[in-house]
Design goal:
7-stranded mixed β-barrel, two-stranded antiparallel sheet, elongated, alpha+beta
């Protein structure tokens, strides 16, 4: 799952001897402090963003390793002439209970970079976002893989808002200076490469035409009707199982039958009805004229 995370430039400065030594690990020729311009970037944290996603805290330490040596570009344009900076050091910090990933970056003091340096110092270039890949997105409500359950990001369930928790980072691509970030503060930038992690509803809502939205609504109504029918069949099968004495409580039976497909439930219901008819055959309340009667009943005949 490829994602981008928004961040911001936090500070600027000139490298000291220790920082310069780390910078020179990435340069082909030794650089002097006068040749280098440094700035600090808060890349991402473990708090929910406006799109109701967040990194888990453990992911930040993994990202710290993955981002070492990664390049800084402009507007997520992966061309060599858009490379402007590089990460030379990272650390996970904590402030007011919030854990965040901070990176030390450098660029060369060249004529080409003069405008960029001036814009960083002037507070013009202060928003960046990161591109990375994560291996897992988990629903905060049920703990299942997000998208495989019925919960949706941003929806309130009881007293909890559903959040997609991003974990197990597998790669870090770059950080980028962006003109118009998707969020005001550090968080998730939802544009993705290799396919967005979206549900069908989210994809159609963001990119679909009115016709697609109408068709999706009709499908949702059909799905709701089908869900209601399935629940009715489950209830009927549970009642039959209790009647036939399956030896389990209603709750256990309901959980067991809930995993069956609609076709399997229908077949099971049919078999139970046949068995029930054998064990409990139907009979009329009034006997027929040909039925045998006790002689005593003759006294009551009209």
């Amino acid at each position: 799952m490829n994602i981008k995370k928004e961040a911001s430039v936090c500070a600027v400065g000139t490298p000291d001897a220790q920082a310069l030594a780390k910078i020179n690990l990435y340069s082909k020729s030794p650089l002097s402090a006068e040749q280098v311009y440094c700035f600090s970037v808060r890349l991402c944290d473990d708090q929910p963003d406006r799109d109701f996603e967040r990194f888990d805290t453990a992911a930040l330490s993994v990202l710290a390793e993955l981002f070492l040596g990664k390049t800084g570009i402009a507007d997520h344009d992966w061309s060599s002439d858009r490379q402007v900076a590089r990460v030379f050091d990272t650390q996970v910090a904590e402030q007011d209970g919030i854990h965040f990933l901070q990176a030390q970056c450098y660029l060369l003091r060249t004529q080409k970079n003069e405008d960029l340096i001036a814009e960083i110092e002037g507070g013009i270039k202060k928003e960046v976002s990161i591109g990375c890949a994560v291996g897992q997105s988990t629903c905060s409500i049920c703990g299942k893989s997000y998208g495989s359950c019925e919960h949706r990001k941003g929806v309130l369930y009881g007293d909890q808002v559903c959040i997609a928790v991003l974990s197990a980072p597998t790669d870090a691509y770059e950080f980028s200076f962006v003109a118009v970030p998707a969020q005001k503060h550090a968080g998730v930038l939802k544009a993705m490469r290799g396919g967005e992690s979206m549900t069908l509803q989210e994809l159609v809502s963001k990119n679909g035409s009115p016709e697609l939205l109408s068709r999706l609504k009709a499908l949702e109504l059909d799905a709701a009707f089908g869900k209601a029918c399935r629940e009715n069949i489950v209830d009927e099968v549970v009642s039959l199982a209790v009647l036939l004495d399956f030896g389990a409580s209603e709750d256990v039976l309901k959980k067991s039958f809930a995993s069956l497909s609609f076709h399997e439930l229908c077949k099971l219901k049919q078999g139970m009805n046949e068995k029930s008819a054998q064990l409990f055959p139907s009979s009329t309340q009034l006997p027929s004229a040909s039925a045998s009667r006790c002689p005593m009943d003759n006294d009551y005949m009209i």
